[in-house]
Amino acid sequence: MKKSVTIGKKTVSVIGNFQLKYNGDAKRFRMTNINSFVPPGKSIEDKLAFKTQQGLVESLIISKLILSFKPDVNPDDLHNVNVLIQHRDVKIDGMTKEEHEELVRMGLKKSNPKFTLTNIDKVDDEAFEKEVELIELKAILYSRKNPLSKEKLIYIASNFGIPYKNQFTNEERLIRFLQKRIDQKLQSDKGVRASFSELIDNIKLTEMIYYLNEFEEAGIVSYVGGIYKVKNIPVGANKEKLVDYFETNPTDFNIFKEEIIKLNQGTVHSL
Predict the structure, then answer these.
(1) So where are the chain's domains?
(2) Distance between CA 191 and CA 186 in Å, rounded?
């Protein structure tokens, strides 16, 4: 199999590591596929099929938003990257807008391909890692297989300062609202994306911080003279001290938590 592919007037190297990215709506993604095809002007004998351990197949299953290929070490990946470069539904990252439009006019590419193929050895590593990270976090945020509950979304929203109270009485609309606002936060900066990962990984702490904010709003916790107090008992100068206090006094935390649940009329429930 060739180490470069010519498509139109453009020669594309197949040396390096590649990633195929789904260009559709991440929140609707479950699983898709990309079919074998006959290149324009060719006969059925020239049909380009994909290759797996089982041999040539009619379609390649795309089970993730981003699929990796290592053609330098995997012969099947080398074959498949060759095919993907020539596929009408795959945009080649690195081509100019004019080069892509020329391929569209020649019937070699769609104007709005379903996938983008990137040689990750030839891109800005930091920018690409940021894009991959964002896609992976969106996959968690909009997952249908393991969806985040309304409660978890509210806990995360609270940590990010996103309003969540009295937004919608309809639960489904509230979930969509929270997903959209968290999504906007994720796109803002790297620190927010790191925080989101931490909040997901330690959802119990995320829940506690949510309730600390609620305790403060309800007057259970106060911040006076640079000191946090719980029912007028000084506990420390920062929220880490508040967390330590309630981890040491779980009974107090659960009592106040029940007060908040009743106050919010069951808007938020325990995990």
Answers:
(1) 14-124, 202-271
(2) 9
The domain over range 202-271 is classified in CATH as 3.30.250? yes
- Please name the residues in contact with 73: beta carbons below 8 A apart, sequence gap of 6 or more: none
pLDDT score of 174: 86
Determine the residue type at 66: I
Give 128's pLDDT tier (boundaries 50, 70, 90). low
d(CA 24, CA 46): 29
Q: Which alpha helices (DSSP H) does 37-96 contain, by range? A: 75-86
Q: What is the maximum span of the chain, computed from C-alpha positions, in angstroms? A: 83
The answer to whether 248 and 235 are in contact (CB under 8 A) is no
Query: CA 145, CA 161: separation in Å to the nearest integer?
Result: 27
Q: How far is CA 232 from the centre of its chain?
A: 42
Please give the Cα distance from 84 to 81 (Å, whole number). Answer: 5
Q: Please give the Cα distance from 18 to 78 (Å, whole number).
A: 10
pLDDT of residue 20: 93
Spatial separation of the C-alpha atoms in residues 149 and 171, rounded to whole Å: 10
| d(C-alpha 265, C-alpha 232), whole Å | 26
Q: In the chain, which residue ranges form alpha helices assigned H by DSSP? A: 75-86, 97-105, 125-141, 150-159, 171-186, 190-201, 203-218, 239-248, 250-263
Give the tens place of pLDDT for each residue, 151-207.
Answer: 889 889 888 888 877 666 778 888 888 888 888 888 776 677 778 888 888 888 888
Residue 178 token pair: 């929270």
Q: How far apart are CA 110 and CA 266, in angstroms?
A: 50
Per the confidence metrics, is the pTM higher than 0.70?
Answer: no
